[in-house]
Amino acid sequence: MKIKELGERKLVNAFLSSLKLPDGVFPLFDDTQAFTLGNQLISFKIDTFVFSTDRPKALAAYDVGWKAITAVASDMAAKGASPYLFMCSLSLPGDMEEEDAISLENGMNDAASEYGGHLIGGDTGEAQDGVVAISGIGLHPDNIYTPRTARVKIENGDIVAVTGNFGYTSLGLNYMLGKIHLDDPILSKALEAFRKPKARVKSGLALSNLGAKSSMDSSDGLALTLSELSRLNGLDVEIKEMPIDDDLKNFFETNYIDPTSYVFYGGEEYELVGIFPAAAEPKLSEFGFRAIGFTNKGTGIIKYKDTVIGNKGYEHFK
Hints:
- Helices cover 33% and strands 25% of the residues.
- By secondary structure, the protein is of the alpha+beta class.
- The strands form two sheets. The protein has a seven-stranded mixed sheet with strand order 8-10-7-11-9-12-13, sandwiched between helices. Strands 1-2-3-6-4-5 form a six-stranded mixed sheet.
C-alpha cells in the first residue's frame, strides 16, 4: 500500500511501534519528546518545512524562517516548555537568490529570539526542493509536562480553552492563493496570522499553574486537535463559542460565509488547546486563554450548537 493511501497517523504509529525508549525518556507520541537530565526536565522537538507543500509562492523567505522556528516553539509551549536552543538543517535549491537565503536565516534568528531561545547553528546543503528542518530543546521551569493523554482524571464539565483567534490563518492562505478577496482590517490580520504566527510560550508556561490536564498545539486545525484530545481521553466536547474576534465575526456575517471550515478546519494557527478543571475558568483570561466549551465522557464526538464537527484538518499524505 502506498503511504498516501495509508495516511500519516498509521505511518507514524507503525514507526513508533518499533522504537524502544531508554529510561527517563517519554512519551511515545505527543507534541514533544521529553527526557530528564539530572534534575531538569527537557523537551526535544524536530519539525520540517518543505517549500513545495508548505510555501505559497507569495510567502517571503523571511516568513519561511519565522514559521519554521514557530512550529517547533509552539509544540514546546503546548507541553509547558520554554524554548532554549534551536538548530537547523537547510536544504536549498541551487538557484535560490543569496538575498533570500540570508533573509530566511534572519527569519529563523528573529523568531528564536522572540521566544527567548537561541539559534546555534546546523547544516546547509543543496536539494531540488527547499527543506528547512528545525530541531529544538526546551526547558520545563517547573519540571511538569502537560500531555495529550491526561494523567489527571478529566471530569464532566471540565473546561476546553484555547489561545488566540481561529480563522484568520486560513483566510490569509486563501487570499495568497487567489481564492478569496479581502479588505482591511481582515486582510491585514489574515496576512499577519499566516506570515508571522506567534507561538504562545507565555500561555504554555502557565499550563501547570492553571491545573491543565491535557494540552496540544493546534497547527493541524482546531477540529483535528479537539478530536485527538477527545479520542485519547474518552471524551466528547461541546463547543459553546467559536474562538473568533468581533472583526472576524462581522466579516463572516456580512459576507454570508459559514465560518466552520475556516475556524475548525484551517490549520497553522499555532495556538494552544487545553482541558482545564472548572475551577480554573476565572483565571484563564489572565494567561491568554478563553473558554470555548466543556467536556463530557464519550467517544470523541465534537459538537458546536448541536452540529457534529468532523475529525479533519491538515494531514500529510492526504
